[in-house]
Amino acid sequence: MDVGIVSYGAYIPRFRIKPEEIGRIWGVDGKSMGKGLMINQKSVPGCDEDVVTIATEAARNMMARVPDVDPKDIGAVYVGSESHPYAVKPTASIVAEAIEATPDMTAVDMEFACKAGTAGMQACMGLVGAGMAKYGVAIGADTSQGAPGDALEYSASAGGAAYLIGSKNVIAKINKTLSFTTDTPDFWRREGQPYPLHGGRFTGEPAYFKHITSAAKKLLAEVGSKPQDYKYAVFHQPNGKFPTRVAGMLGFTPEQIETGLLTPNIGNTYSGSVPLGLAAVLDKAQAGDRIFVTSYGSGAGSDAFDITVTDAITGYKRENAPTVDKIIANPVYLDYGLYAKHKGKIIMSE
Amino acid sequence: MSSVAREWREIPGRYNLEGSKCGCCGKVYFPKRDFCPKCRRDSIGKVEKHKIDRNGEIFSFSVVHESPACNDFLKPYAVVFVKTKDDVLIAGQLVDADLDKIEIGMPVRAVLRKLDADGASGVIHYGFKFVPDV
């Protein structure tokens, strides 16, 4: 049985802030900070947007591209995020209701820093492959947190993408997936705390680079492929610098990662990062194209995927929902005051 | 604090624009109703659920500068009457729009947004708002 992506959809809020504007508030050369991180601007949610609304819009875009799929055939909805609006009360059940997949299905929220979206894809593959569900929906979405003045504030952004996983009319077959996981505390947020903490440079070599290269090399070895066999590659993109460097370490070229590298224009959408990068690739991919994907979630783990676009992409109604390029176009720029309002950083009277 | 149960009952309409259609004359209603005021007793038992198209165009609009507390962060904002492709008029809020570019006849689309929340610890109310359909 071929299990893979039957449909996908993306959503990114229209608001942006530039690193220069964030740096202006904190007395930092924001332009240099942005240049170092390879981030020109980041997306910011609207005042009435959160992970529920972002995940729903992505999922509705996903369903719009497969008008023949009955949402009642969806057996599972998994939403991966580290900014679920409720501590207790699932995002996934709200999204499932909004795409009319309820009630004969399972739903759960997932969290694994920035890789809960790809973990959901793997879980859906398992359900579909085992015959327990006809379709599964995996969503990675975030309205990411970064403490004011911290380096993360220049990158933490908002967006998400949704994937319909199934075995019929698969537009992109997932040939193989595997993961690499260890207990590495490079980034965390304790219960009830508004902002995450991180280990600074410790988030690099022993965390991001070790896990991505380990998962990626293992997948290449098990599949028996080489980086040159892939038209596109997508790596987790906490900034523009890390994925560019890890691609080089693994032998992928800048041309292979260019299409799926969204961070310079929208920032780090955390759980939405790799799902959105893959969506940007699927917007352009043609039958036969091979895609290499490796996510990363702090704490720490990586999920790697070997994907081949199938002939079904030709009859697939990509035009029924906006491409990532179209979603990103025509942004509205915010100053720091409006950004603080949008992110709920201003304490209001009761 | 609003009634959680009442809000819950309204979910089909608020999330997915579930309205109703008279089985006698075919007229579509939103919000849903159990009785067609045109066909009256003939419609009893014949009014069915009907999902309203999320796409439509602005029939009329107004810009609001003094808002209820739930919209303090969004003011000024536009409220609109949208004529959907089912020929139903729906009142709602228009967001993500440049207020000086709103026009009658402008295509819009219903999306899910936060409407309100019962304080910091109560439930969050989600429902439809309109955005420009570009």
Beta-strand content estimate of chain B = 35-45%
Tally of alpha and pi helices of chain B: 2
What's the oligomerization state? heterodimer
Helix content of chain B: under 10%
Distance between the termini of chain A: 56 Å
Widest beta sheet: strand line-up of chain A = 5-4-6-7-1-8-13-12-11
> Could you tell me which chain pair has the largest interface and how many residues each side has?
A-B, 23 and 19 residues
Distance between the termini of chain B: 37 Å
* Category from helices, strands and their pairing of chain B: mainly beta
Report the helical percentage of chain A.
25-40%
CATH topology of the domain at 53-132 in chain B: OB fold (Dihydrolipoamide Acetyltransferase, E2P)
Going by helix content, strand content and strand pairing, the class of chain A is alpha/beta
Q: Main β-sheet of chain B, in a few words?
A: 5 strands, antiparallel
Mean pLDDT of chain A: 97
CATH arch. level architecture of the domain at 53-132 in chain B: Beta Barrel
Count of β-strands of chain A: 14
Helices of chain A, by number, come to 12
By CATH, the topology of the largest domain in chain A is Peroxisomal Thiolase, Chain A, domain 1
Describe the structure.
The complex is a heterodimer of chains A (350) and B (134). Chain A is of the alpha/beta class. Chain A has helices at 19-26, 30-37, 51-64, 91-98, 116-129, 204-223, 241-250, 254-258, 263-266, 273-282, 324-328, 336-342, and strands spanning 4-11, 15-17, 42-44, 74-80, 106-110, 135-143, 158-166, 172-181, 187-188, 197-198, 232-235, 290-294, 301-309, 332-333. Chain A is 32% helix and 22% strand. In chain A, strands 5-4-6-7-1-8-13-12-11 form a 9-stranded mixed sheet, sandwiched between helices. In chain A, strands 3-2-14 form a 3-stranded mixed sheet. A two-stranded antiparallel ribbon of chain A has the order 9-10. In chain A, helix 3 packs parallel to helix 4 (91-98). Chain A is globular, with a radius of gyration of 19 Å. The mean pLDDT of chain A is 97. Chain B has 134 residues and is mostly beta strands. Chain B has a domain at 53-132: OB fold (Dihydrolipoamide Acetyltransferase, E2P), CATH 2.40.50. Chain B has a 5-stranded antiparallel sheet. Chain B has a 3-stranded antiparallel sheet with strand order 2-1-3. Chain B is globular, with a radius of gyration of 16 Å. The interface between A and B is medium-sized, with 23 and 19 residues.
